[in-house]
Amino acid sequence: MTTQTIRVGFIGAGANTRLHHLPKLRAQPGVELAAVANRSRESGERVAKEFGIGRVHDDWREVVGAPDLDAICIGTWPYTHCEMTLAALAAGKHVLCEARMAMNAAEGRRMLEASRKAPQLVAQLVPAPHTLETDPTLTSLLADGYVGEVLAVELHASQGRFVDADGPLHWRHQVSLSGHNIMNMGIWYEAMMRWLGPARRVMAMTKVAVARRRDGGGAWHDVKVPDHVDILATFKRDTVAHMRFSAVTGLAPAAGVWIFGSEGTLRLEADAKRLSGAKRGDKELREIPIPTARRVGWRVEEEFVNAIRGREKITHTNFEDGVRYMEFTDAVTRSAAEGQAVNVAEL
Description:
The protein has 347 residues and is α/β, with parallel strands linked by helices.
């Protein structure tokens, strides 16, 4: 497929789909927003009207099975990703699936296997967005030996809020909907893999600060997904990383990363999209300018369309890396449950 119109169907039209995928796919030349199935007919019709989508379906299976569609954008919660992706690939459709690939690594591997059996189809995951503008520079600095041997990494990703004991139940609190995904742990690890490669071994401790929460109808539910996790991990060359993800650390500093090496130090301030560094002998960190041309940023929809047209390969993010971050989430879950260090399964 090189020049003909690409007709896209949407399953789920949540916040990220409305913010990014719908307007940015619509902006791509030769792309038509052709069909949508949302949680209700009413919500689907609202989205269709807002974005000029051709038709509304009551069931996502109707979207996947529609013979006039070329690609499917999956914007639902993780518990549906595997089933929908397998169905779309089996129907000969390209797939753009929302981040948090699946419930667990077993589902992720099924998705990867299905994509490998259909190499003519594009299979893409929405990437971790928060370091896209800094990744090329950070990766280049590490490859060029700016810090020397990477010895230790500190990553903290806290929301800076105090615990909200009366807050409502969210899908991210429910294992049945989110699986082994804990807060933004998986997408941060995806970013770390761009710089350091995959982890080898993890030791994790977790905490559920609010054991029960009410859903929208007032019913109580037990909360099993942690809202605080501390992880020690080893990477290649025995680099040790300490990672903290938390929704309960009030007034904690903004998310950031420190990379300590034998010859230098790098600091990433994620919200500010700023890098700073220092070499042996320096007295303080100094900001490292990032040229505008290297601040690539978000181009998910462009990459998806270009890959369908055969103009580029998927890098952000392919299913292989998705499985790698799902194996990490599985290992964290297993380590916390068993109270011991465990290996991260290799792809």
